[in-house]
Amino acid sequence: MDKSVDKELAQKFWEISQEAYAYDSPWTAEQFASDLAQSHSHYFMESEEIAAFLGFHQVCDEIEITNIATVVKGQGTGGKLMRRLIQYAKSQKIASIFLEVRASNHEARLFYGKFGFQVIGTRKKYYQHPTEDAVLMSLKVGNKDE
Fold it and tell me: Model pTM?
């Protein structure tokens, strides 16, 4: 992917993220561009126009979800992306998928719970604007020795 495409994609991810998150995008367009350049960073997108995306980092046998955002909620797009990630994780023999979510984001916490994610801890004052704790969640996908 060339740098101009990366910049355009990063801008699109930022725009979707701005619209999707209650407190605006947690990342800037520049942070998305930087992330796109990382070899351990991956993105799944939904539709030609990119109406939704899920970003994650894969290191060894773990995945950390960095972003999930969709322009229109309630149409199953986020669920499609999550199912795609879980299938991918199984195919890659990933042991666990991790994520952080705002403590007050009950809708997202319920969404992750539907896929089997469980609360494993908190990060105090993790989020800014406004300052808020993060809830750590994990999904055991498999075991690399299975």
Answer: 0.89
Q: Flag residues of the chain having pLDDT under 70.
A: 1-5, 143-146
- Given a contact cutoff of 8 angstroms between Cβ atoms, the answer to whether 71 and 52 are in contact is yes
The C-alpha atoms of residue 52 and residue 73 are separated, in whole angstroms, by 10
What does the pLDDT look like over 2-34, one tens digit per residue?
A: 445 588 999 999 999 999 888 888 899 999 999
Give the list of residues 6+ apart from residue 62 with CB closer than 8 angstroms, or none: 94, 95, 96, 97, 98
d(C-alpha 3, C-alpha 10), whole Å = 10
Q: Assign 76 to helix, strand or coil.
A: coil
Question: Alpha-carbon distance 51 to 24, whole Å?
Answer: 17
Cα Rg, the chain, nearest whole Å: 15
Count of C-beta atoms within a 10 Å radius of residue 118? 11
Nearest to 54 by CA among 93, 86, 96: 86
